[in-house]
Structure formats: structure tokens, C-alpha cells
Amino acid sequence: MNKKWFLYVNALSSLGSRMNLIACSALIFTFEHSAYWLTAFFVARQLGGMLFSPLAGILADRMDRRRTMIASDMGAGLAILAIAFYPTPYVLIAAAFLNGMLYTLFHISFQASLPQIFGSEQLLQINGLKVRLESLVGIMGFMLGGWLTDHSGYTMVIALDAASFLFSAWILTKLCWEEKGNTALATSSDADIRGKAANGFRVTLRYLRETPVLLTISLLAFPVSLSTSAYNYGLPFLADQLRGSDATLHGLMWTAMSVGGLIGSYVAARLRVKLVNGMLATYAVFSVGIVGAFAANHAVSVLLLLVFAGLFSGAAQVYESTLLQQAQNDLRGKVMGVQGLLSRSGYFAGFLMAPFLAGAFTLFGMLVFAQLMFVAGLVGFCLYLVFSLQK
User: What are the Major facilitator superfamily (MFS) profile domain coordinates in residue numbering (predicted)?
Assistant: First the structure.
């Protein structure tokens, strides 16, 4: 099969996940104390990913990455299928926790495999294509998920999501690529290589300290996900404020961001900018756009501002993925595991804080607080990079 089928498989999994987010949100709103269960749903997903990220990075470096992705897809499909048969709060939360673990393993293995499959010289273009495909399936997935949930019920959508993961696993069994042996830096001795194998996590932290750009991306993952958790939590409530319990509008909001991401990823892959500068600048503009969307009072204005925010979010994802994939092959999975741990920790903290902040400051106040923390992190890491690269 063509190597790009690898990207299409990832997009297929993303399609099901986006439909599932809308369906599960609609299911949660049928529960008593829905705000509590929505928070538990998001927290469970992030807690599973947070606890599993370091191990997922080690597994991605030590095992066949294709097989880890197949196992992840199969496990996720079965966990989601359980929700369709037993649509209770506890089954939903358990499935969310398990899927947080499995998605982390799949994502790290997928990201770490791209340089091996396509070569480092094509990474910017490949990451641009990856984000465009994810944006396209986001456009279809969120819109279709919202429409099907309103017209056919959440059970149909959840079952389709499970099928997409199982189909993705089957496609991966038909794909193969050369798993190149791990290679150390040219300056590393044999003893150092053995030390890296024996003390992977500690060595990864030392490697990050010696690589300011990768350390910046890893640490920045916490405020980025803290910011993202705020609008993830807030969008269903924003849709509810504008048009009552309208799953279609909620789906259109995510579709709008996906449209922006599609445009942004296309532009980012063609601009000649320094990757780090591009990532930091696009994240900053994204933060402004998402605040504007929550400040708007009309559905059309909200959707247009979400397109704007999504444009810069998509570009930032292209730059961030390309930078992370430049880590050396034998530590790439572990580096992504550290970044994943910090990212999931940010989501975990964000989803725990969001209900309390929304209750204390209103929905818009919660969003602004999260974005201010994000911008403060951006400024701090910009200063760190400037000083560290001058040494």
C-alpha cells in the first residue's frame, strides 16, 4: 500500500473520535448532574493519558510501533462499543479512562514513526498534510456527529466510532514499513548508549535539558493543554447558551475550528519561517481568537471567530509536530512521552479547574483566565529560548 495510507488511517481514527465527542456530550446531558459527569468524562480521559504517557513513550521506542497502534485501535474500539451497550455514567467514565491510555500510545507511536516512513526532509509537508486530513475529518466528523446525534441518537454515533477504530486496526495490519534500528548521537560512546537503554527516562530528561527547543515544546505542553481544556469544556455550554441543547450547533463549532485548521496547516507548510518562532506566534494569535469567540453573542459571529482561531491552531500543530519529530530516533518516543505527560497533566488540571472557575467567574471569565495563563507561559518560554540560545 501507498505510505500515505498511514496518514489516512490516523485521519479515520480522528473521524470517529470527533463524532464520539459530540455523541458522548449529548449522552452526558441526559444524566442527572450533567455538569459533574461532563467534568468527570474529560478528567478521566486526561488522567488515563497522563498516567500512561511515560510508559507509552518507552513502549514506542522498544516495541514495533505498528503493532502498538493496532493494539491501541482494537482496544479503543471495544471500549467505545461497551458504551453503546451499557450507556451508564460509570461505563462512560471507565471507557474514557481506557481510551485516554490507548490514544496516548497510538499518538506517540504514530508521531514517532513519521520520520522513519517519510524521511526527515519531508516532515514539514507531511505534518501539514496530516493536520489537513485531521481538519477535513473534523469538518465531516463534528458536523455529521451533531446531525446524527440529533436525528438518530447517540447510540448510532458511538457504534460508528467503535467501527472506525476496528477498521483502522485492520488497515494497519495491511501496512508495513522498515523499522530502522535505534541510533545514538554521533558524539555518544558505546557506554553512553548502554546507559541510555538502561536509564531511558532519566537520560531523556538530560537530553531535553541539553536541547532548549525540545525542552521548551515539552514544557509548553502544559499551558497549551490548560488553554485547550478551557474551550473544550466551554463549547458545549456556549452552544447551550446560544440555542439550548443543540448538538448540531456544538458540532458546527468544532467544524468551524477544523475549517480554520485546514487552511492554517496548508499555509504553515508553505511559509518559510523559523519553526519555533512560527509555533509561538501562531499559538499567541490563536489565544486571542478563542477569547473573541466566547465574547461573541451570536452563533454566526462565534463560528467565524472559531474559524479564525482554528487557522492559527492548525499552523501551530504543524510546527510543533515537526519540531518534536527532530528528536533522535532512539529517544523520540520517550521525548514524546514526557511531552504527553505534561500535556495530559495540563488537561487534567484544566478540566478540574474549569467548573469551579466557570461558577466563580462565568463561562467567559473561566476562558479568559485560562488564556492569560497560556500567554504568560508563552512569554516565559520565549524569554528562556532567547537567553539559552545566546549562550
Answer: 213-391
Give the chain's length.
391
Place of cell 451533531: 146
In angstroms, the CA 373 to CA 368 distance is: 9
- What's the rounded Cα separation, in Å, for the pair 253 and 270? 27
- Cα separation, 331 vs 124, in Å, equals 20
Same domain, 32 and 90: yes
Look at the chain and report how many structural domains it folds into.
Answer: 2
DSSP structural state of residue 180: P
Q: Show the DSSP H helices in the chain as ranges.
A: 5-28, 34-62, 65-85, 89-118, 123-152, 154-174, 190-198, 200-209, 212-243, 247-268, 275-295, 299-324, 329-390
Q: Extract the C-alpha cell encoding 317.
A: 500543530
Nearest CA to 370 out of 280, 290, 282 is that of: 290
Residue 115 identity: P
Grid coordinates belonging to 53: 504517557
**What are the tens digits of pLDDT across the range 320-367?**
888 888 887 777 778 888 888 888 888 888 878 888 888 888 888 899
For the purposes of burial, counting CB atoms within 10 Å of the CB of 116, is it exposed (0-12), middle (13-18) or buried (19 or more)?
middle
Grid look-up 485521519 returns 11
Same domain, 222 and 300: yes
- All three cell numbers of 383, joined, read 524569554
How many Å apart are CA 221 and CA 377, to the nearest integer?
10
Q: Cβ neighbours of residue 278 under 8 Å, at least 6 residues apart?
A: 268, 271, 315, 316, 319
Measure the CA–CA gap between 259 and 339, rounded to whole angstroms.
26
Domain co-membership, 209 together with 355: yes
- Whether residue 190 lies inside any domain: the answer is no
CATH classification at residue 248: 1.20.1250.20
pTM comes to 0.72
pLDDT digits (tens, 9 = 90+) for 177-215: 555 444 333 334 444 434 444 456 677 778 888 888 888
List the domain range (segments joined by +) for residue 234.
204-390
Of 159, 176, 193, the one marking the end of a domain is 176
